Each structure stands twice: as structure tokens, then as C-alpha cells.
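User: C-alpha cells for this complex, please. No commentary.
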Amino acid sequence: MARNARTAKLSRRCVLAGAVALGASLSLSGANAQAYPDRAIKLVVPGTAGGGMDVMARVIGDRVGSILKQPVVVENKPGAGGNIAVDYVAKSPADGYTILIGQIAHFAINPWLYSKLSFDPMKDFTPVILLADAPNVMVVNAESNLKALSDVVTAAKADKQGMALATPGNGTISHMTAELFQKTAEIKFNHIPYKGAAPALTDVMGGRVPVMLSSVPTALSQIRAGKLRPIAVTATKRSPALPDVQTIEELGYPGFDAATWYGFLVPAGTPADVVAALNTAANEAIKADDVREKVLQEGGDVIGGTPEQFAQAIKRDYEKWGKVVQDSGAKLD
Amino acid sequence: MDLLSNLLLGVETAFSAWNLLYCFIGVLLGTAIGVLPGLGPVATIAMLLPLTFGLPADTSLIMLAGIYYGAQYGGSTTAILVNLPGESSSVVTMLDGYQMARQGRAGVALATAAIGSFVAGTIATIVIVLFAPPLAGLALEFGPAEYFSLMVLGLIASVVLAHGSLLHAFGMIMLGLLLGFVGTDVNSGMQRYSWDIPQLGDGLDFAILAMGMFGLGEIIGNLGSSMTRDVNTMKISSLMPTREDFRRMVKPILRGTAFGSVLGILPGGGALLAAFGAYSLEKKLSRNPREFGRGAIEGVAAPESANNAGAQTSFIPMLTLGIPSNAVMALMIGAMIIQGIQPGPSVMTEQPALFWGLIVSMWLGNLMLLILNLPLVGLWVKLISVPYHFLYPCILVFCCIGVFSLNNSTFDLYVMGVFGVLGYLFRKLGAEPAPMLLAFILGPMMEEYLRRALLLSHGDPATFITNPISGVLLFAAATLIVLVLLPTVSRSRGEAFQDEA
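Assistant:
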């Protein structure tokens, strides 16, 4: 059954790709090679309006639109850990008018967590550009006696029942980072998953959970207000928003890298010149000072580069997180 | 002193011509969209959010807040007029509001809701001004054990909500709990009852369920019974509340406001618990409890005030801690980030004009709502005398638009259709959907908090009793059970049942 469905989808894709190619060649043969884009572009966000990814999508999408001189319209499709949005774009026409803003979770973690995905993240997409990274940070209550990463490790080793660690949910990048760190530091946490970051923060600030792994923007205001203490950043590079906070790698765990990223992807089969046009526009957009400032505010930094570089990053992280997810035994269906 | 200068700053900000204008536009748009069946505050704000991106930060938040109260109030209007809750807390308003409308007292119900909301909004704003920072601490005091016990209390109180057969109410509560299981389990990540449909992975959406059960169910039911609706033939007896009505609504409004102000601060389900906690309390205190569910004015005044007070105080954790207490506050935080403001405790000190301006505008917005809506009451009431064959297709279309706008998903429309049929069946069986909806909302939260509390205590159930707040709440729940089982109470329940039959 599944095989049949896939073949059917593939053949539909082939037809679509063919149709698009035909259309493209027709328009190219026309008097003016009136190129992509000639109408509004849809940017699909795997999350609710106003959520973290939505903000960045609107900021970057708006700029890409003004560079390409066509409006970029954000469409929010929340649900199923982003899978609904990813699936939707995978099945959209490969003409460059439907773009996905995808995160590491959708391409490197979800494929391993969900055994029955209706799309193939590696085959159904053409990467366009790696927009920016967004590191995570380990935080504790500001009044906690855990002052450094070594304190957390010592306390976790001493706690035979497992020290509680909050994350924004099962299968999130924070959860997987915790799994990776457990293995690296040879400790065992008592994982407390929440429905999103807000209730988790409440319990850490209320002193009920000692440690939390959080995205930087979520924790940043509480860190600045002195309610939370940052312990370490999970990427190999310090966060520009928290320049004084050391990385886990710096603190004695060489090679520890749990960076996260987000970027534009289009359905596989999108013509190369369309991908190139999008890539150029997006590269220009993220270099603009005001756009970059917003990215810095989110705790990360812009990256940019070629579609090939993004494809390599996806492949690398797909393999790396696949191992972590499988070792952790986490499953989401 | 300090407070006075802060308030002055707020007045200065809120009363600037632009902010006044945008506050009004927000309230107006919010009411206009919120009054469409099926569009509650979350959907309305999500839709209108991009409108505010180009505005200055304070203006943008003032406008969004205006949209929020407007939509909230608009939601109550549809709850009263056509029995459609725009959001979870108006389920309670619907119980008596819709009955009042059927008795030709829709105008009175709407006016009561408007007045109750205004009074509650005013008092809650004062509460925010005086106590925001200390109250913020309360939100942090509530951990999983406390929430679980609060929900237990709430669920037991919800049995009181039902009029008619206790067995039916119990059955509907069980069904609601089961429906609440659909989706991904927070703790293990297991998908339950999702039949490999990714759209069910996040569970059923309250708005879809409510619109199906109430909206579609009601329409099918009415079409089945007769082609003329009773409201049509019923004379609209009065638009404005009488002196007697006013006398009866004063205390419920004040008690509802108190309930709402306290519970609104708690992230996660606070405002909803406030609305039906206030309703249950009024029913218990009333000398004629059997009027409840049949158009008691107290049953509109109390939950509407609780609702609005809760909506107001839910700003406290958002503004003072940067923690969103509900989906609307999460959207507001998104709006702040877009404006380049880091939400959190620093907002008060770094953006005093924004902070105090927003608070003053809350009261202003409520005043505008009152001025806007009291004259409109007559118009709304006329709306329900529109003939069937015009009104119902419109409601259907708006329900569909509302449901589709939630997730941009056609799957949700089918789900609504299924629950429409179910809603019709339950009507025929005489089983009330309100307790089911409450259980549907509270059940999953209870489970989540129960398991989290046990995870944190390493499996020791004593945590629910040794935590003082949790212990007191559980004790109150136990007392309530005893009260329900006491002969006098059960007799009055029996009478109510006979009365119904």
C-alpha cells in the first residue's frame, strides 16, 4: 500500500515537474523571458501566528518579497510537530511559489521520531538556503546553588532517582539535546516534558524543576531580569545574545554540538533557476542590518550560503540526530 | 506617589489621539469579527495580528488588547443569541444566556453581559494597577500538584452545572474525558486515538468540537423539529434590564469579578475555571437554583464578569513575567517580539509608557465596548428574528470560515461535521453537551498535571496533600462531594429533574 502510494505520488510529481518545465520553457521562449516570480509567493510556517518561527518568517519573508518585487504571504499551518506544514509543501507544485521555512526538527529529528511520515524529508525537498542558527541554552533558577555546568553534572550524578530536567516537549530539539548530553556526560536526567516553553519556565522560576533546556529567546528576558541563570550554550559557538555564557564544548565536552537552524526549502523538482533566484534574494535579505538585528535578538546569527551548503548541513544533521534519537529510544507514534 | 506618576504616564499614552483611535478600531474590529459565530478571540487576533506590524509598539499592543476584549465580548453575543461559544469560557454564558434569548429576553441578557463585563473590567484593571507585581508571584506558586487539585475541584463543580439527569451529566463528562485523550500524550509522546491521521496528532480543537456540537447540532435539531423557530414567534419582551434585574445582577457580578480576577492570573485554564466556578457558586447560593439553566440572569452576569475579569488579569503574568497564560497572551508576546520588545519582567521598567499605557487603555477599551454595545443590543436582537432560511446558511458559512481559519485545514471541517451529527443525537437523547465540553478541556490538563506532579515527586502521591495549596483545594473538593451527597441537596436535584420531566 505504502509503496503504491509513493509511486503514485512520484508519478504525480513527475507530471507536475514536467508541466512546470514545459511552462518554464514556454515562457522562456516568449518575447520577454519574464522570469520568476510574476505573482505572490506563499511562505508556509509550521507554527501558529505570533510563534517564534512566525516572527522570523515574517521579517525575512517581507524582505525577500521586496527584493523580488512580489509579495511574500505567510501561511500558518501548525500541528503534528510541524509535519502537517512540511507535508503540505512537499505535495505543493514545484514552481517556487510555495516555500517552507523548515527547522532542524522537521528534517533531522521528526523523520526518526515518527515511523509513518507521509513525506520523505530527504527526497521530497530541494534546500534553498540556510537562513540562521538558533542555539539553545541550559538554565537554572537564579537562586539555585547550581552555579556551573560541573555543578549540574555533580548534582545529577548524586541524585539516584534522576535530577529533573524540563524541556518544551517530547521529541523537541531541547529533549534530544538533553539525551545527547546525558550520554556525553554519563548522567541520567528525570525528563519532564511540557507543552511548550511557557509552563516549563514557570516551574523552573517557581523552583519546582532545577534545570531546563530552552531556546535562547524564550529564556533571554528572564535571564536579563535576573530570574534565570544561564549555565551553558548548546552550540559550538557562543550566542551573540549571551556573549559571556560558555558553550558546553568549552566547558570540557569536546565535540558537543546541538546547534539548531532554520532555512527555506521548496518541493523537489523546482527549476534550478528559481532556486537560484530565491537563494540570491534570501542571501541579500538576511544581510540587511535590520533583518540581522532581529535574528540576533532571537539569540542566533544569520548564516546564508548556497543551496548545496544547506543540503550538506541537512544531510549531516539527519545522520547525527538519527543516532541520538535511536539511542534515546524516543518514538512519537 | 510613584503609582500616581505611573498612572499619569499611562493616561498620557492611552489618551493620545492615535492610541485612542486604534483602541477604538481594535474594539470595533474585535466585536465585528468576534460576533461572527465560530470566531473567538484567538482566531480573531491571529487574523488581525499582521495589521499591527506597521504600528508603533504601544499603539500596536493597545489595538491588539482592544481586539481581544472586543472579540471576547462578541463571542458572548453569539453564545447568547445563537448558542455558539466562540471560546471555552462562553460555554457557561450560553447555558442561561441562550435560554433567556429563547424567552424573548435576549436584549436583557446582552445588556447584562455588557454591564457585567464593564464592571469586571474596571475592577480588574484596578487590581492590576495596585497588585500586578505581587500577584505575579501567585502564578509561580502554582505547580503541577496545585493545578491538578484545582482541576479536580473544577470537575466536581461541573457536575453541579448540569440540570436534569445526574446520570446523563456523568456520562457526558466521561465522554468528554475520552475525547480529551485524542492526540499526542505529553509525557510519553504516544499518539492516542489518532488512527495515523496526522491532523489528530495534536488532539481535537475545542472550537471545532463546540461549533459542531452546539452550532451544527442546534441547526440540525431545529430543522428537524419545525420550520418556524420559537424565538421568531416569541415576542421580544424587553431590551433593557428592569430594576429587579439590576438588583439580581449586582452580587453575581461582584462575586464573578472576584473569582475571575484571582483565577485569571493562573496560566492554563484559569479563566475557564473562573467562569464556571462563578456559575456554580451562584447556583449554590441562589434561593431558586432550579432557575439556572432556564434563563437565570445570575447565570449570565456571574460567568460573564468572571470571564472578563480573568481576561484582564491574564495580562499580569504576561506583562510582569513574560509568561503567556493562554493562547491570546502567546500571540501578544509574539507581537511584542516583532516590535523589538523583549517580553518579560523588564517591560515594566524599560517601557513604562507602554506598560501603563496598555493598562489604562484596558479600562478605556472596556468603556468603549459598553458605549458601543449597549446601543447595538437592539440591532443584535433583531438579528435573531431573521428567518431561518437566511440565518442558518449564514451561520453555517461563518462556522466553516471560523473553523478553517484556525489551522487552514479542511480536515477540521469534516471533524466539525461529525460532531454536528453527534450534537444532534445528544439533543435528541436529552444529554447536555456543556459538561462534556468542560471535561474535554479539563481532562487532558488534569492528566498532564497529575503525571507531571508524580514525575517530580518520583511517584509519591503524598505530594498532593503535603503541598499546602493543593491540600486545601483537595479538601474543598471533598467537601463539595459531601455537599452534593447530602440529602437536602440531592432532594432539590431530584425536584429539578421532576420539574424538567
